[in-house]
Amino acid sequence: MINCIVVDDEPLARQLIVSYIEQLPGLDCLGSYPTAVEAFTALHQHQVDVIFIDIEMPGINGLNFIKSLKAHPKVIFITAYTEYAVEAFEIEATDYLVKPVMFERFLKAVQKVGLNKNESQRINQPTAEITNIFLKIDKKLVKINLSSIIYIEGLGDYVKVHTPNHTYVSYMALGKLEALLPNYEFIRIHRSIIINKHLIQYIEGNFVRIADIDLPIGLTYKANLYKNVE
Hints:
By secondary structure, this protein is an alpha/beta fold. The chain is built from 8 helices and 15 strands.
């Protein structure tokens, strides 16, 4: 078993990586932390084999934190920025992932850590389905069942998540939320719209009817939509 921790100041980013870890039988997440200071304490309280860490964080950033350690576990950086990659590998990072991180890319990074033969074989088995997400709404993390989501709108820096009984508004980019959603349930049909594929009633022209609502299909998304519903 490989012990790991997650360090990222964004709650949703931590949630995503923890959910990925939980799907892999060879990994055990000992905790997730919003700051390097809290991670430092965890490193002294536990035997940590791998640390998944963001770079741009309040206070000390991820790179400087790793450099400050006399000895550190294997490191996989997870960041929205590409410009730190060279510096990251100079301190012998195991891998460098750029957000949004897809599960397949995460799995490739984890395999570099060094799982034993049995654990590697088990990783290739089907994983558990993700059924819920947490969105930051009015300073709270609200749990939303994925099957209840009809569609999602991107409005600049915000998203509106429409369910049968409520519309949730959260401060985050549509692309970030898209990275949290399983692609076997959701598909982007427009630069500002993601829909629940299971609720499609029909497609006609440049519109999708879903839950008795007509939503526009973006030209660049049309071919992929038809490919995924055939």
